[in-house]
Amino acid sequence: MSGAPVVARDTAAHPTAVDARLALPAGVGWLAAVLLVALPQAALATSVIALAAALSSVLVVRRAARRPRVPGLVRALLPSVVAVGVVAAAIALAAPARIPPLLADLGEEGGSAVGVVALEATVAPGAEGGADATLLVLEDRGTGEELGMRVPVRLLQVPAEERLALGTRLDARWRVLPTEAGDDRAALLAPMGAVTVGGAAPPLLSAADDLRARFLDVAGVFRGDGAALLPGLAIGDTSAVSDELDDAMKASSLSHLTAVSGANCAIVVGLVMGAGALAGWPRPVRIGVALAALGGFVLLVTPEPSVVRAAVMAAVVLVALAGGRPGRGLPVLGAAVLGILVLDPWTSREYGFVLSVLATAALLLLAGPLAERLGRVMPAPLALAIAVPLAAQIACQPVLVLLEPSIPLAGVAANILAAPAAPVATIVGMLACLLAPVAPPFALGAAGIAWLPASWIGGIARVAAELPGAQLPWPEGGAGAVLLAVVIAGLLGAAGVPPVLGRRGRRRALAATSGLLAVTAGLTVGTATLQGFGRPSDWTIAQCDIGQGDAVLVRSAGEIALIDTGAEPELLDACLRTLGIDRLDLLVLTHFDHDHVGAVDVVVGRVDEVIAGPLADERDAEILDALAAGGAVVRPVAAGEQGMLGAQSWRVLWPPDHRGIEPGNDASLVLEWRAAGECSVACAPSMLALGDLGQEAQRGLLAAVRIRAVSVVKVSHHGSADQEPELYRAAAATLGLIGVGEGNTYGHPAPEALDAVTAAGGTPVRSDAHGLVLIAPEPGRPDVWRVWTERGELDRGG
């Protein structure tokens, strides 16, 4: 045979070679899992077809082996076909038990049943929000039989008066709400009535939780950002981190330091491997002890699914690096990915899983070439210190842009500055945690040492987050992620990582990518700037886009009121910052459900006066106490009370103080807002804010007071179906504001609510469809109001 000689490369002789044989099967199996968990009914057929195709391919290859030419494409695709078949079979086997018929029926009708759940995470006393759990027992309402199961669920609320360790069993009557197809949680559970502890956590988990609690007490002796961050850096406990500090950590790309990730696990493994090397242990012994230490670390920081996945990814790096061939870690990573997907295919859609895999792959494949390239212009240790966080951020950023459509320009620099401090805080912090129960004075000393680097990290986060241009806006959604991936690939190619392009090719790649980046950034920043220019500065009513919840602002004559806060602190804070609001003259808390008061910490210390509806329990009172401690004058109100906000008057229409109405939705404060005296541009349109009143309470309101026509109605209960159309006809509002989360599982806004608004002559304005909404006066026309929406258009003019 003529031509150039064929060189057969032995990958064993080339340590730097990358073995990607399992990368394609892992990727194809992953894609199959992403698609099939949303269509589990198709999983069995897919598995049969894929495995039959794989068997046929084996027969074809075996027959072709007797011939001179072997179908290489069939051989190359065979592992991928097998991966699809195995993953599909796992989904087909797991799907029936994942959503038992009883649970599915309750979800469809929004029914409730008595059940037992086991927590998958530790819940601190007074913690807001919910927690992941496993549903173990559910009672059949028809027969009274208790059915055993193991179903992953999300508890919407966990009222904890004491610390509840992972594994604690809770008994309650739970309302069952469905989740979207493919969600990693099979259902949402909302407690109805009292929640009781039905069983303590297993002894090993309970002992680990007691150790963590003692460490939190030790860290609590110190003050400042360092004290808040130390438990997160050491053991992944972020309960002491304030919303403000959390925002700064996210904006500076440092939040991964306080989450138990592969990096934390790698630190533990590296310590053991280093100590073993100094002691002269054989490599197999070092690896075995390191894996055992990794298991103990997972138990210490709580073996939540995300932590277990991080440990698996760290083990992949350990096995690869222990062999001295990072490039050979890719097959191990592929095998780990396939193993996790077979054990729990629904993991495939979790962002945490995606980021763990990408970060691990980046450390295996990208960190080395980046360090080598950077080492040409700087010292090798510095090049490696830059290459590691840069590789991880490069790999993860296209996924992160799906969560937050912006690029943290200061993130790499912040990670480089924080890199020397993070291991010290983690290692010494873990030592303090281990010493806490046996030697408290030494634990306090170690915690003091770890507090210093933790404070350094907190300072870096705050400075980086406040830098001008720290966040570069970027197109959102899948298109933005793909675009960013193309830009990153172009920049890596231009930098010669990997060195596959010649000098001319690198120059062309740099020119093309720079042009694409400039155009994208220009359009994005320009659009944001133009949008800011178009936003009316003289708005008088604003509906914030804070997800599933209410947060409506009223502004008159320089004074500002906020009606409820929503549940997401970062979303409320973003809305207030967008509108330039630093302080509130009045805060109205219509009632104390989490989706109305969950973000109240954002405004603590920034409010002059608070009016609130009836209190249900001590936790409601604690919210008002925190506001009062921040300097606010707090007072409960009922029907008939009134006051002023600038040139606007407000009057409470509901609830009456002489009736025994239970606190909750039907006891929501209902306020009527109207211009006082002569209307001017400082006036806001009249508004009826209905809180979360249900139909029966709305009928009670109609019977109790005369409802006058208004310009705007804040639709009750996020547009639920439980509405009284007659009330909306009486209000005759031109606009109906609906605070609702995109893709919520409640079906809000319901057709009944939309019909009630439109039948009364109004136009629904939804935060899920329209984002931030501003209502402003039309110059020279005091009875006409302009409506500005962040996105989308109104169906009818308002």
TrEMBL record:
Stored Gene3D superfamilies: Ribonuclease Z/Hydroxyacylglutathione hydrolase-like (3.60.15.10)
Lineage: superkingdom: Bacteria
Domain named Metallo-beta-lactamase: residues: 548-717
Membrane topology listed for this record: Multi-pass membrane protein
Pfam families in the record: Competence, Lactamase_B
Keyword Transport tagged: no
Keyword presence, Transmembrane helix: yes
Transmembrane segments: 28-61, 73-95, 257-278, 285-301, 307-323, 330-347, 353-370, 382-403, 409-435, 442-465, 477-497, 509-530
Compartments where found: Cell membrane
InterPro entries given in the database record: ComA-like_MBL, ComEC_N, Competence_DNA_uptake, Metallo-B-lactamas, RibonucZ/Hydroxyglut_hydro
Keyword terms of this UniProt record: Cell membrane, Membrane, Transmembrane, Transmembrane helix
Cleavable signal peptide: none
Cellular component aspect of the GO annotation: plasma membrane
SUPFAM superfamilies, per database record: Metallo-hydrolase/oxidoreductase
NCBIfam families: ComEC_N-term
Name this protein carries in UniProt: ComEC/Rec2 family competence protein
